[in-house]
Amino acid sequence: MAASTEDSSLGAVLVGTFNEPGERDPALAGSGGLVLTTGWPEAPAVRAGTGPDAPSWLVRGRPGTPSEGLLYAALHRSEGELAVLSPAGPSRPGTTGGAGAQDRGNDVGWVTSQRIPAGGVSTCHADLNPSGTWLAAASYDSGTLTIAPVLDDGLLGEPVAVAAPAGSGPVAARQQEPHLHFVLFLDDDRLLVTDLGADRILEYSIRDLTGATGAGDHGQPTFVHTLPAGTGPRHLAVLPPLPEAGIERRHLAVVGELDSRLHLLDLDSTPEGFAEVAVVPTHGQDQDPESARENLPSHLVLSPDASLVYVANRGRNTIGVIRRAGTPELIAEVPCGGDWPRHIALGHPGGAPTLFVALERDDAVVGLGLDADGIPGEVRTRVTVRRPGFLLPGT
To answer: Is the pLDDT of residue 63 over 80?
Structure first.
């Protein structure tokens, strides 16, 4: 995190919440849209809370590009927005006033330099391409993909918003229409977008979306990767080769929110689509056939050595640990420390390997220590933050 070296030395975790102005019940210290916590892993505390509204996802700028040192936020509001955040202190070139002016004087470490409409409803996720020239975002309720150019000063240019192609799935309460949830750049041009509502991964070309190739219909995906009916794909992660485990190719990990499975796909397979490598449950199986439907896993992270995948299970309030191998397997399921783990992140505050968990319904962020095998243990530390939804460790 670029706020200051002091924050890093204290073990800082920046928390994005679902708070908006006027929402102060309960009245908690950590009730701003953006909350800075410090003192991890031994004595975490809320240091400050301020705007912008409902930043459900934060993206670090890319080193060596105009985006370096900035944060980009997806604002999960009824009229979705994208925001650019700059480090607090002396204004950097291109920083504007307006909404950011109200943040100055707080010590959360960041000020809002720009907010632009995303052209969608409930903007929930964003990603920058590797060269930091484009920001992409997904809006869940409207099924909208938004892309915006990153300008020379790191601010965003005019956005382009396109609707997902019509589609649906078998889970009537959740899949009557497209619901885009996650965007992932594979390179500067190739963009993957999960469609939870229609059991598919949409692949787009930035050049096509912007008309740079001269293609006719700029709003259509270049390819549609289909998943089993009822999967409800939510979040993605690229898994590198792991030769020591017999894995020679890159895999794409897909969290199925509705089937409570981790789908592993061959990312380097033929243009006909990503071939399925394996499907692994994110939690232990039980007698209830509806347990998967009620579990609703959220986010996933990869261990530093790429051998383990951690998945947050919201319905069961657990963390599933999946070991990568020729035949991947669920090797542990441990309590997450509270209710509704919306997001998880790995960090090493004070040199202690820690899995941070945002407990949305418990108004808390907790840290779980990892043992020598990478398995999370009991809650080591906890701090009160209202409606946390995203975590960005600073160390």
So the answer is: yes
